[in-house]
Amino acid sequence: MDGIEVPKYFLCPISLQIMKDPVTATTGITYDRESIEQWLLTCKNTSCPVTQQPLPPESDLTPNHTLRRLIQSWCTENASLGVDRIPTPKPSVDKSHFFKLIKQLQQPGSNIKALQELDFLAAKNERNRKFMVETGVPKALLSFIVNCFEETSAQGFAEALRVLVFIRIPLAEAKIFLQEYNDQIIKSLIWVLGCEFKPQVMVKSHAVLALKTMIQAAAPMITGVLKQTTTVSQQGMNAALHALLIACPWGRNRLMMVESGAVSALIELELGSPEKRTTELIVGILFHLCCCADGRAEFLSHKGGLAVVAKRIMKVSPTADDRAVFILSLISKFVATNSVLEEMVEVGTVTKLCMMLQVDSTAPYLKEKAMGILRSHTDEWRKFPCIDKTFHKVY
After folding, report:
1. Are residues 65 and 112 in the same domain?
2. Which residues form the U-box domain (predicted)?
3. pLDDT tens per residue across span 41-79
């Protein structure tokens, strides 16, 4: 199209490209449908880009058929010069169509076809995704997943999860759904993580993203799942722990986890001597939760907290050692009362820290961290005869 002069009124004022589906706004200005709809959906200032007059997000956009036919005719006349013909646009999908798809999703004979169409429409544009949220598609998809879990049928799971990732589960809607279905959606997503799919990595990554949103909405329920060690597979448990670990960096999430009893549930789970990967995940989450005052208080209120962390040092992996020592460092720095220091002696915490200093395989930065903990409370711990002898070997 180099060297061809395109009539100015064929160009969209936003994209500056030839309009494929010209529509006229209430302000009288014509835009390409995709460009103006994207403008209205994503811009905080929903004024007309040309006139700056108010243009509400739900304002009518009238198809400009006359201009579209002129553009198509011009493109046909200049086809020999490399101009592509503009096809006649298909009618836009409205909300009623999504309500129809939701009904089809509830029917065994048509649910897979409905899922495939939802997948196509969600990937097409932001307008469709907005309509999906407004018509309740996320809730319908979550219900579909729960039903599949209850019937132990994985058919349609991949499509449902992919659409959920496209449209993103609104947090408010997630909370309402959880109130209606209790913890079934959490269990369902964990179950998905234990199933075999193709492509497996893609499906499970989508499940983790959905699980992360649900965790943000319902920390108490994921804590309840952690307590169900007899009904959840090891792979599913590790998936739930991994999702918690992903959600940990946000302070609000940590507070919700602490308030829901996650600290106690994690300690109880670790006291059962789980596999190596599970321990690494548990001490990783406990470290994040101990970064806040409430988390440290819950950790110390459990009689097995300090004991189980100390016991795992030098017995699991360097990753577990790292998180365990950092947990002890936080306790030592912020809540080292006389009773806490005495408990650290009784459960072998001080002895383990001293042992780390004497083992060549301990990473230098961990030795430095362990030494810092010991030095900060040397005077208190030297009062214990057995510990005083240990200090003599170290210093």
Report:
1. no
2. 5-81
3. 777 667 889 998 988 766 778 899 999 999 999 998 888
What single-letter amino acid sits at 379? D
Residue 177 has pLDDT above 80, yes or no: no
Residue 147 lies in a domain: yes
Phi and psi angles of residue 30, each rounded to the nearest 5 degrees, phi first: -100, 135
Same domain, 67 and 12: yes
Report d(CA 258, CA 240) in Å as an integer.
16
Q: Which domain holds residue 196?
A: 94-218
Tokens of 89: 């646009």
The whole-number pLDDT of residue 149 equals: 83
What is the spatial distance between Cα 320 and Cα 311, in angstroms, rounded to a whole number? 11
Question: Helix, strand, coil proportions of the chain in percent (round to 5)?
Answer: 65, 5, 30
Number of domains in the chain: 2
Pair (66, 175) in one structural domain: no
Dist. CA 213–CA 108, nearest whole Å = 27
Residues 214 and 100 in one domain: yes
Identify the residue with better confidence: 383 or 326: 326
pLDDT greater than 60 at residue 23: yes
Q: Is the pTM of this model over 0.85?
A: no
Same domain, 14 and 60: yes
What's the rounded Cα separation, in Å, for the pair 364 and 96?
64
